[in-house]
Give the backbone structure.
Amino acid sequence: GGGEQDGGQGSSSSSSSSSSYIPTDAAEFASRIFHSAYMGTRNSSEETRSRAKDLAQQIGIYHCDINIDTLCDAIVSLFSSVFGKTPRFKVHGGTNGENLALQNIQARVRMVLSYLCAQLLPWVRGNTGFLLVLGSANVDEALRGYMTKYDCSSADINPIGGVSKGDLKRFLLWASTPDGLNYSVLRSVVEAPPTAELEPITAEYKQNDEEDMGMTYEELGVFGRLRKMVRCGPVSMYEKLRNTWNHLPSKDVAEKVKRFFFYYSCNRHKLTTLTPSYHAEDYSPDDNRYDHRQFLYNVRWPRQFRRIDMLVKADAVIQASTSSTSSTSSPSPSSPVAADKKRRRSQL
């Protein structure tokens, strides 16, 4: 219903079983070449399961509903039998490491099962050949690293891998209308809170992508464009956003920028294994094709973060000086504060 990890992947093939076959309509053709699998667990909601089924019906996809709890439980059981300890989710008292490991099991099992289905579904349906596995991770999730390496984001090709969450939502809204593709269920997909649904749902807790990431998808889209297209580092990105995000205090802008660059550098290695995607926009962070920056960084960014902290303090001095000066609304052009502000602006 919003995250790429909440249901699974699609598979498609490039040929029909008969060379004389002629499609009668789009839905009938889709039923032959397009397959989808909702690979749910006890952490999946009925809402996402229903949306997957309804979308498959509207498109005409050959759809499978597969519960993968037995596979995930078997892996945890094997681990416990070897090491004598059983990991727990955070809501059950587990550590952050345990919590992430249990989520990653679900995500990686879906990748393995996707490729198994891609190989055997033609046989199940009385055909020959194999299917290609389609990925469904978007640009923003890759940029932030909000994906498990070698999980259900891994595929043969990813049609939306070069599209941001914001652009993707706008496309889905268009596709949901009669003037678009008339797949009306897509509107409910867009309106659903983005969630990976990899943790247990309780009365007090329901996993949310943006809370997990510590930033909104809208903010992430801005970070991505500035990093890839404008080629901003931490300091120049702070300087630009300090002037455009004037609804936030300087220290809040600084924390958001530093948080982004921390996770960007922590997870940059994941971009070296991204599934090939349709290159739709210049903001694509695909390391293998369109973004040849290094993939190993010092995640602390010591020099850059110290500089940002200095600029935040300078902004605070400027604001304090401005508010305490009754005779003028801004410092004198010759004052040290104004000179420092002018010097920092020239560095842009």
Observations:
- The longest helix spans residues 96-124.
- Confidence is low (pLDDT under 50) at residues 1-7, 335-339, 341-348.
- Strands lie at 10-12, 34-40, 62-67, 132-134.
